[in-house]
Design brief:
- The chain is mainly beta and 450 residues long.
- The chain folds into 3 domains: 235 residues, Jelly Rolls (Sandwich), CATH 2.60.120.1440; 81 residues, Immunoglobulin-like; 105 residues, Immunoglobulins (Immunoglobulin-like, Sandwich).
- The chain contains 3 helices and 33 strands.
- The strands form 5 sheets. It has an 18-stranded antiparallel sheet that branches. Strands 27-33-32-29-30 form a 5-stranded mixed sheet, with no helix packed on it. Strands 22-21-24-25 form a 4-stranded antiparallel sheet, with no helix packed on it.
Amino acid sequence: MFKHLSLSCLLLTTITASSVIAAPLVGQVSNVVPDAFKSDKGCADDAVWKPAKFPQKFNQKNCFKTNDGGSVILTLKSDNSTLVIGENSIVLVDSLLENDGQGNFIIKPKIQKGYMGFNVKSNEGHKVDFSTGTAAASIRGTKGVIGGDEKSFFVGLKDGHLTVFDSVRVTDSIPIANGQTVLGREKFLVLNLKSSGDTAFAKTLVTLLADSTLSLEELEAAVVKADSAYQESHASSAAASQSPADVANKEDQATALKVPKIKYSSYDSLRCVANVSVSDVQGDDVRLSSLMDGTPIAEVGVKRNMSKRLDLRSGVHEYEFVVENSAGRNSVKKTLGCYPMKPFSIKLFGKKYESLTIPPEPPIANFDGTIMQTVQFQIRVPENDPSFLNKVTVRQNGKVILQERLSQIQNLDYQIPVELNRNMKNRFDIEVIHKSGYVVKTSKVYGVSK
């Protein structure tokens, strides 16, 4: 899926309505670690490279290149968001537009190789869209790192939320949150890593992704192992730099701090909300989050013991409601169905009233005079999913000839063979009840005459 991948990112931020004239100035170089270079006219083989300097303005079509140990921090003039170009990287500031007709400030850097950290302001209207030949990602107010080469890419988040889309099948998407990293090679792979969004750890990801001999399973194992090793080395360095008093103080704090508790109480399948209660809340670092089928969908901060309504998504899903702080986490899992009330319809095939002229009964002994027909209809629910239905009933002249409930309803297309009686109207009443309680009825009549 990721063949011939070119990695780029698109930064959208809102500026004042008075800024209507496009300008080449993008921002300023706010820090440089040698060796780092800048070219005024792109990244071509014949580009003229000069040492990047601080402070130094940069414009569209400028290209930055770093060697071993080098880095460049770019500050965008629109809102002071920052981009950090890592070592052994090449990044082109491809284009700039200060007004796209909706007041947006757009910058499009292309990562030709290597990686780049980002810290985007969370102001209302500010947005960052990353895109590649086969993938795209959209974020607001997020801190993390993105990188890759022509065949693979990764995005890791330290803070915020981000959704990665398949550019070919735009309906395919993977939302990730802080603490998660998505890798792209043959397909998307989401990992929970303690080092997600760490620009220093990104160097390791670049090296592992560049190893084409690793299968996707081997790559996953290697990344998880590297994450553990990176965290252990940081923990050892931090412990070595602490005094005995610091260690004792942190141990006392950890002992005093309780893990918050969470309890599920109920849910509303029509309004699509679940009710939970959080207790033993201490401090301001308590977080309450929701995961649907293992994917994060929401997160809020909690500052006191409270009851909270959490949004659900349409359909039947497994939810995990999590409350956590620095002392640990507690969670509760529930499989819940959400069925918001939405109008739907029943499509009858053929006319609602059909008149049939039947030849006289043949003089055959024991012939009961019935005629066979097929009542055909289609239930059109917006989700196109029979699990959203509660009951389907078909009556002939008031008598139930078919009734299905809940799990018995396996499809939305019905073809029911029926027997028609001669010399009378044969009325078929169809009633469909949605799990939301919404009811749709229709009928079909066969008039039979000689």
